[in-house]
Amino acid sequence: MKVREVFADRKAQKWLWIGLGVFAALQIYFVRELLAALILFTGLFIVCAVIALILYLVDRASRWGLSVAGIQAKRAITAAEELSKKPLRRPRSETAQ
């Protein structure tokens, strides 16, 4: 039996077109599923990237805040040391009796 003879039959042609239609529908369905998965994973990636960016910015801000606080603490310690070296009374003031 030749290929032409098999597909010459109307019933066979009908099933051939149905099979091709099912194949095309499955391919379209597969592509739609892949696109849906791509969109979902893109959204998930964006959410994770935003969270990572926020954590990075919070870390940078805390490091900057700690460095500023360290500088202010050094200034305060220096000022306290200078104040502690000064006498509490003026040298020419009267002594307490």
- Order of H and E elements: HH
Helix content: over 70%
Average pLDDT figure: 85
In whole angstroms, how far apart are the ends?
Answer: 135 Å
Based on secondary structure, the structural category is mainly alpha
Quick one: biggest sheet?
Answer: none
Number of domains: 1
Beta-strand percent range:
under 5%
Poorly predicted runs of 5 or more residues: none
As a whole number of angstroms, the C-alpha radius of gyration is 41 Å
Global morphology: rod-shaped
Question: In terms of topology, how is this protein built?
Answer:
Elements: H1 3-8, H2 10-85
Summarize it.
This protein has 97 residues and is mainly α. The chain is 85% helix and 0% strand.
Explain the overall architecture:
The chain has 97 residues and is mainly alpha-helical. It has one domain. Helix content is 85%, strand content 0%. The protein is built from two helices and no strands. The longest helix is centred in the middle third of the chain and has 76 residues, at 10-85.
Which labels suit this protein?
single chain, 97 residues, mainly alpha, 2 helices
